[in-house]
Write a structure and sequence with these properties.
- The protein is α+β, with helices and mostly antiparallel strands.
- It has 24 helices and 15 strands.
- The chain has helices at 7-23, 41-44, 62-65, 77-82, 107-119, 151-157, 193-196, 228-231, 264-269, 271-274, 277-308, 311-314, 319-326, 329-349, 357-366, 369-376, 378-391, 393-403, 413-417, 419-437, 442-481, 602-612, 614-619, 687-704; strands at 134-136, 142-144, 482-483, 499-507, 522-528, 531-539, 542-550, 554-558, 578-584, 593-599, 630-633, 652-659, 662-667, 673-677, 681-683.
- The radius of gyration is 39 Å and the shape is globular.
C-alpha cells in the first residue's frame, strides 16, 4: 500500500491501520500466521491514545492464551451468502470528507493530532469527543459519558478526588403550607456574593416578564438584623459549612426577578467597584419598591381584564353586587400607575437614584385616597362574594372558567381582590427598610421618616374606614333585631360601641332567668366592647333580650367537667364537655346573676373567655413581647367571625394564646388582635428574626404613632 500524506486520505489510512492492528491482519487483510486472535484485546486497547502511562499488562491467564479458531466476518457463511456488502458498526467508519465535526476542535489540537499520526501510524484518532463528556476520576483518569448522567451525579463528579464536603447547616426556615401539589424549591438564604453576580448584567428589563404580586416577597419585609442582601457581604467560610442566622423564608414566595446590581446600566457604569456597601443596599431597597409596584400593577391589570370586564361574570350578578364586589378598583389601578410612573422616571434619570422619599410622601398624602375607599368597602365585598359563591351556581361556574384562564396563573379571584389591602399594608415596612438604610445620612433619614409617617397614616385611615363601615352597619342591623320588651330598654346605637363576639351557648343549670326554658336550654350572647346582652334566639334575625350588664361588671371563671355537681342523680359532666361560668355583678335589675354555660369545643370556650375579659386585659400592664412566640402567615386568611383577624401573606403575629388548633395573637404591623387557624402560619424559630421583629414593632409605633 502506497504512503499518502493528503489530509483527505489520512483518516482512511489511520482507520485502516487501526482496523488491521486490532484484528491482527497483514497488509493484504489476512490473519497473521502463528498469532491467535483474542477478542479481549479490543477492550484493553480501547481509547489507547488517552490512557495514562501505566506499567505493562499483566501476563495473560492460561484461559486467555488458549488458541481459538476465529472466523472473520468477511469469511462467514452469511457473508458468502449475501455478497461483499456488509453492515458494520457506524463507529468503525468515518467519512473522509465530513461536513462538520461532531465536536468543536481547535486548529492547534487538530494539527498536533495529524502530526502525531504521520510520525506513528499506530496512533489513530479516536471518535470525536469533548471534555464536557469526560470527568476526572481517581489518578486523573478520564471517565466517559458524564453528560449522560443526571445533573446531581454530574455535580458530584466534579468534586476533587477524595474530597469530603460536609452538609451545609442552615438556620431553621419557616415552611409554607402546600397550597398546590408541588412547591418551588426554597431559595438558600445565604449565598456567596459572587454567586449573586453583582457584575452579571440582567439581559432585558425587569418589565419583560412580570410576576404576580401574590407570588413575591420583598426583601424589605425581612425583620431580622440582616436581609438577604446584607448576607452577601459576609465572607464565606472556606469549608462552606458556616452557619448563617438567616431571615425567615417561606417556600411559596419568590424574590423579585432582578436586583439593582444586575441591571446592565449599573454594571456598565462601573459603580459597583467604587460604591460603598451601605449605599448599594439603599439602592437595592429603592429599586425593590419600584419592581414590586410593577408586579402589583400587573396583578391589578389581570383583575380588571379577566374579572371586572368579564361579560360572563357580570351576567351572573346585579349591578349593585358588581359594584360591591369590585368597588373602585379602577381608581386604585390608576393611582398605582401614576406612582409607578414617577418612580420609573426617577430611576431612568439617575443610575444611582438620589432619593424617592418625596415621591412616597406626596402620593401617600395626595393620590392614595382610593385605597381608603376600597378598604372601607371590604365588608360589603366579602359579604357579596360569600353570598354569590354559596347561592349562585351560574356565578360559581363563570368564576371557575375565568380562574382557569392562562392570564390568571392558576390564582383565585379572591387573591386578586385583596391585593390593595396587601400592598398598602406592606408599604410601611418597605419604607421603614429605606429609613434603616439612610441612617448615616441625616437629611435623607428625615425625608424617609416623613414618608413613613405619611404612609402609616394612610394605613391607619384604611383600617379605620373598614372598621367604621362594618361597625355602623352592624349596630343598625342589631338595633332592629333585638327586642327589649322584657327588660329595661338600652340605647344600643353609639359611635363608640362595636361588637366583639356573638354566638349561641348551652345553659347548664336551669335557674334564675332560664328557669322556664326546656331541658337543654340555650342562650344567645351579644358581647360589645362596653356591654354584654343575654338573649333568647327566636329566629335567624330576631332575639328576645333576657338581661344585660356593663362589661366592667362581668366576671368569668373557667371550669372543668369534673367540677360540675351531680344534678337530679345524673352525671351532668358527661354532656357538658367545656363549661364556664359568667357572673353578672350588676344586671339590668341591679342585682347579681350567675349563668353556667357550656360550649361545643375547647377553642370556642377559650375564645369566649378571651372576649369576655377584653377590658380586664386592656387594663393590665404591657407584657415583655420579646418572650412571646411568633408566627409568620403563609397564606391569606379572611376573618369569618367578629373575633377573628384578617391576615395577609408575610404578616408576623405575636401569639398570646393557643387552643385546639386556633391561635390568638397581635398583628405586628398595627397591633390588631384576633383569632385565626394555626394551619395558616408557621412558627418562627430563628431567634435573630424574633428579636428583629420586636425591635421593628417598637420602632414603627414610636415613629408612626400607631
Amino acid at each position: 500500500m502506497s504512503q499518502r500524506h493528503s489530509d483527505g486520505s489520512l483518516d482512511e489510512k489511520l482507520l485502516e491501520s487501526h482496523f488491521h492492528s486490532e484484528l491482527r491482519l497483514d497488509a493484504k487483510g489476512n490473519p497473521v500466521s502463528g498469532l491467535p486472535i483474542v477478542r479481549g484485546s479490543l477492550r484493553v486497547r480501547d481509547n489507547a491514545a488517552f490512557q495514562p502511562d501505566v506499567p505493562g499488562p499483566l501476563p495473560p491467564s492460561s484461559k486467555d492464551t488458549e488458541p481459538r479458531t476465529v472466523i472473520l466476518s468477511t469469511q462467514s457463511a452469511a457473508a458468502l451468502k449475501m455478497g461483499t456488502e456488509q453492515l458494520i458498526p457506524r463507529n468503525l467508519a468515518v467519512s473522509s470528507k465530513a461536513k462538520a465535526p461532531a465536536r468543536h476542535q481547535s486548529f492547534g489540537a487538530a494539527m498536533l493530532s495529524k502530526e502525531a499520526a504521520r510520525r506513528d501510524p499506530r496512533l489513530v484518532t479516536a471518535p470525536s469527543f469533548s471534555q464536557d463528556d469526560m470527568d476526572v476520576g481517581p489518578g486523573r483518569m478520564l471517565i466517559r459519558n458524564l453528560r449522560n448522567q443526571s445533573y446531581r451525579a454530574a455535580m458530584k463528579g466534579l468534586e476533587a478526588p477524595g474530597s469530603q464536603v460536609g452538609p451545609v447547616h442552615l438556620s431553621p426556615k419557616l415552611q409554607a403550607l402546600a397550597e398546590e401539589s408541588s412547591q418551588p424549591p426554597a431559595r438558600c438564604p445565604a449565598k456567596n456574593k459572587r454567586t449573586l453576580g453583582r457584575k452579571r448584567a440582567h439581559k432585558g428589563s425587569f418589565k419583560d416578564d412580570p410576576r404576580f404580586y401574590q407570588e413575591i416577597r420583598e426583601r424589605g419585609l425581612n425583620t431580622s438584623q440582616e436581609s438577604d442582601d446584607d448576607l452577601l457581604d459576609e465572607p464565606s467560610s472556606p469549608q462552606g459549612t458556616q452557619k448563617v442566622a438567616a431571615p425567615i423564608v417561606v417556600q411559596n414566595y419568590r424574590a423579585p426577578q432582578v436586583t439593582w446590581s444586575q441591571l446592565p446600566e449599573v454594571v456598565e457604569s462601573g459603580l459597583l467597584d467604587t460604591l460603598p456597601a451601605e449605599e448599594r443596599k439603599r439602592q437595592e431597597a429603592i429599586f425593590e419598591i419600584l419592581t414590586s409596584e410593577f408586579s402589583y400593577q400587573h396583578s391589578l391589570g389581570v383583575l380588571v381584564a379577566e374579572f371586572l370586564q368579564s361579560k360572563e361574570l357580570r351576567a351572573t350578578m346585579t349591578q349593585t353586587e358588581h359594584h360591591h364586589l369590585f368597588s373602585n378598583i379602577l381608581d386604585v389601578l390608576s393611582a398605582s400607575q401614576k406612582f409607578f410612573e414617577d418612580l420609573e422616571r426617577r430611576h431612568k434619570a439617575q443610575v444611582c437614584v438620589e432619593d424617592i422619599s418625596d415621591i412616597l410622601e406626596e402620593h401617600a398624602e395626595r393620590h392614595f385616597h382610593p385605597y381608603v375607599i376600597y378598604c372601607s368597602n371590604e365588608v360589603y365585598q366579602q359579604r357579596v362574594l360569600q353570598k354569590l359563591t354559596s347561592s349562585s351556581a351560574a356565578f360559581r361556574e363563570a368564576l371557575r372558567d375565568r380562574e382557569k384562564q392562562p392570564a390568571c396563573g392558576g390564582l383565585p379571584m379572591l387573591s386578586f381582590l385583596i391585593l390593595p389591602m396587601q400592598r398598602v399594608t406592606r408599604l410601611p415596612l418597605l419604607t421603614d427598610t429605606l429609613c434603616l438604610k439612610t441612617q448615616g445620612h441625616p437629611e435623607r433619614y428625615k425625608a424617609a421618616s416623613r414618608a413613613l409617617k405619611a404612609i402609616s397614616k394612610l394605613v391607619r385611615q384604611c383600617n379605620e374606614g373598614a372598621h367604621k363601615m362594618e361597625r355602623t352597619e352592624q349596630m343598625y342591623t342589631l338595633h332592629t333585631q333585638l327586642d327589649f320588651s322584657k327588660v329595661k330598654s338600652l340605647p344600643l346605637i353609639s359611635a363608640s360601641r362595636w361588637l366583639l363576639k356573638r354566638g349561641e351557648l348551652f345553659v347548664v343549670e336551669e335557674a334564675g332567668i332560664f328557669r322556664k326554658l326546656t331541658s337543654r336550654p340555650t342562650c344567645y350572647l351579644f358581647l360589645f366592647n362596653d356591654v354584654l346582652v343575654v338573649t333568647k334566639k327566636k329566629s335567624e334575625d330576631s332575639f328576645t333580650v333576657q338581661d344585660y350588664a356593663q362589661a366592667d361588671h362581668i366576671q368569668v371563671q373557667k371550669l372543668e367537667a369534673s367540677e360540675l355537681p351531680l344534678l337530679a342523680g345524673s352525671n351532668r359532666s358527661s354532656c357538658v364537655p367545656h363549661p364556664f361560668q359568667v357572673t353578672l355583678l350588676h344586671n339590668s335589675e341591679g342585682r347579681q346573676e350567675k349563668i353556667l354555660l357550656s360550649s361545643d369545643s375547647a377553642s370556642d370556650r377559650a375564645r369566649w373567655i378571651v372576649a369576655l375579659t377584653h377590658n380586664e386585659r386592656q387594663q393590665q400592664g404591657p407584657t415583655n413581647k420579646g418572650d412571646l412566640p411568633q408566627v409568620e402567615v403563609t397564606k391569606a386568611y379572611l376573618a369569618k367571625q367578629v373575633d377573628e383577624i384578617t391576615l395577609q401573606q408575610a404578616d408576623v403575629v405575636l401569639i398570646l394564646q393557643q387552643e385546639d388548633g386556633w391561635l390568638y395573637g397581635e398583628r405586628l404591623r398595627d397591633g390588631e388582635m384576633g383569632w385565626f387557624p394555626e394551619d395558616f402560619a408557621r412558627c418562627i424559630t430563628n431567634q435573630v428574626a424574633v428579636e428583629g421583629n420586636v425591635r421593628r414593632m417598637e420602632r414603627l409605633r414610636v415613629e408612626t404613632d400607631v
